[in-house]
Automatic annotation (TrEMBL):
Subcellular localization, as worded in the UniProt entry: Cell outer membrane
Keywords noted in UniProt: Cell outer membrane, Ion transport, Membrane, Porin, Signal, Transmembrane, Transmembrane beta strand, Transport
Superkingdom to which the source organism belongs: Bacteria
Record text on subunit structure and interactions: Homotrimer.
Pfam families: Porin_4
Protein name stated in the entry: Porin domain-containing protein
Amino acid sequence: MTQKLLLLAALLAPITTNAELKVKIPNSVITIYGQIGAEAASVEYANADNSLVRGKLNNALSFTESSDDMDRQTLTADRYGNILNDGPNLIGFDFELDKELLAGMIPYARYRTTFHTTNNSGLGPGLEAWVGLKSSIFHMKYGKLRGAYRAAKGLIDPWIYTSMQARGSGGGMSSGRYNEVHWNWNAAGDRRFVVAESNGKVGIETGRVISTFGLVHNSDISGALELGVKFGQVNARIQVMGDDQADRHGGNVELKYTTSLLTVWLLGAYLDPGKNVIHPGENANWDNNKYQNWKIGAQYKVMPTLKLAIQYEDGELGSIDNNPNGGQYLIGSVDYKLDKLTIAGWVANYFSDIQESLKLTDIDGGILDEDALSWSLGAKYHLTQSAHIFAGYRQTDSDNDYRDENVFSAGMLYKF
């Protein structure tokens, strides 16, 4: 009864702006936190020759056309949507014993889940859920973990969790398929577009994402063990997963150096799926079985109000053109805060390593390259330390014109 009364009293207590809610029960502390955001965006996809149509793939030969055309349209979806690719809305609970045990180790745990603001139809897919032990220099966790490979995304991308972000459809960091054109292998082993039987248009699914098992910049890692150490300003950790039933073996590594002005990171990811579960089709050139990603980057605070960042990534898994040879991303960003106003943006290049034999052709049979230039620019107005409104613009220009996209976006985010 005492524990229940303490918990109720803490939950009913007034919460001040930017305050962290901590619920104290005997021998434990529970920290409750989260963020709520809502956004609307005006989106235009490439359709200069009117040869594209949105639709979902039914099988290797046909797809169902959507009622949506490819002209500019307003979108608000924030769950499995094309706009908030990994929406900002979440609530988290951190649990920690308030005393040290043997060798200074403290038991701790985390549970986080998502929800969405568009129609509030309930909780979305669960995020992190793990238990572990920690001390001042060592920690271990086991469960569903936030991938270490994504740890730097907030340092390089000032627009993460919005439609102006640099992963996924932004084309600045590895994530998943972006404006995936429906295709199938023909008898000669070449990729050919699937076209609608009714009008001969090419089918494109704008929000489709492949599973990268949490090893790049989308989703989390299930059934993983993490071991980490900290020595002064240096942090290092490794995450390992292995599941024979799911044919999933691999993990992430992170090495990070942090000072008050400079943060430098080196990260890597490795996946051996065991089977051809990443790419459809039966062409042997499309299945290299093992995937490796790595990146190096730095963020520097020129002054307290100005941050510059740069990152290079070499990725075989989660590239925007979804080819087994991957490609390279180079991204730079700036974040400048002046009183209550922040101006921020990024620019990125994707250099594809796709083989000639795996390149797509356009509706007229022309071969399409996959290099892309993306950029984003916007502004935030900080109502408080916890809440801000934002607006901005993102554009992607690819040698594969079917991936071109431009987005105007506006919304609000509140953190607690």
